[in-house]
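User: I need a structural model of Putative transcriptional regulator from Halopelagius inordinatus for a docking pre-check later this week. Nothing fancy, just the predicted structure tokens so I can convert them on my end. Input:
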Amino acid sequence: MFDRYGTARTDPRGRRTVTTVPRDELARRIAGEITLSDDPGATLRKWRTDFDVSQTALAGQLDVSSSVISDYESGRRESPGIGVVRRMVEALLDIDESRGGERIRRYARVISAGFESDIVQDLREYSTSMPLERLYETMDATELVRGDHDEISGHTVINSIEAITRLSSEEFYRLYGQSTSRALIFTGVTRGESPLVALRVVNPTPHAVVLHGLDEEDLWEHAPSLATIDGFSLAIANRDLDDTLEDLRKLP
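Assistant: Understood. Predicted structure tokens for Putative transcriptional regulator:
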């Protein structure tokens, strides 16, 4: 029986496999990030808001006053020790589980892929293939080049700056190479040159690439021609990133 936070994959022979990421591993990673942060309060706030948990709800789960959470996050109270951090993280996960565990599953998918959540901001396999147009509508994206495929079976949202500065060439290959029948969405893009050049050394390419954070006049001039040569659809979007990620996570 598979863990409910397992991630399904298809091996080269077409067989479905599942990699499981225990809740304890997710809790350990979050607690470690908060504890080692230069600003633990801000990092705690980031995770709390990402799990869509209010200060009041977290305080209630911990049986403390909401002012305690506020003081930790603002730095008015001394940074919490590892024991307190672990309790807070477990409380966040407990609340998410009580709501169905959607965010735990999301981060389990990212961890299973072998990347940190600040590099891969979302990774989703759809229950069935869907038209590429639906992704564009969700993101308010403008298509500039139509590629060889009209449907996708998932998406990966990648922080382009973090990926470029932190991933090795082998990790880049693994990131792109696992993304054949899906859309790669790059955030924090200024021109689009770096991710598109990196795509050229990987075969096969994804069905679609969306560059988020720029307008058409800012796009690297060779981007459309590269997309045409390699056969993938290319689009741009500049909608608020947090709203975009929230809506992407509602896709099937």
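Before docking, keep this in mind: Residues 82-98 form the longest helix (17 residues).
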